[in-house]
Amino acid sequence: MRHPNDGTLRRLLDEPEGVADTDREHVAGCPVCLSGLAAAGEDAAFAGAALHIGTDPDVDAGWRRLTAAGEPRRVPATARGPRPDP
Question: 49 φ, ψ to 5°?
């Protein structure tokens, strides 16, 4: 059997139910794929740590600021060219 691609290995981490049973069984018994799965896990942990902002956003305060501005400005539509014949 072929080795699953990187996308399948990443899906095993993020959406394991979205991976075919044959791929899941192959990865479980294949040292090469297990190594790739570990690398994908390390990448995911690194990305999660890099994107962590360390605070919870105050959604209510943000919504109040947006609604306090009043009605949104209307942006005029740009001129359109002629319509094609049907």
Answer: -70, -40
Confidence of residue 17 (pLDDT cuts 50, 70, 90): very high
Write the CA distances from 63 to 5, 6, 75, 77, integer angstroms.
42, 39, 22, 27
The number of residues making up the chain comes to: 86
Whole-prediction pTM: 0.59
To 5 degrees, how large is the angle CA 73–CA 77–CA 81? 175
Query: CA-to-CA distance for 16 and 61, rounded, in angstroms?
Result: 36
SS3 77: coil
Q: Looking at the predicted structure, is the pLDDT value of residue 80 above 70?
A: no
How far apart (Å, rounded) are the C-alpha atoms in residues 34 and 40?
10
CA distances from 8 to 2, 42, 68, 73, 78 (A): 12, 15, 46, 45, 43
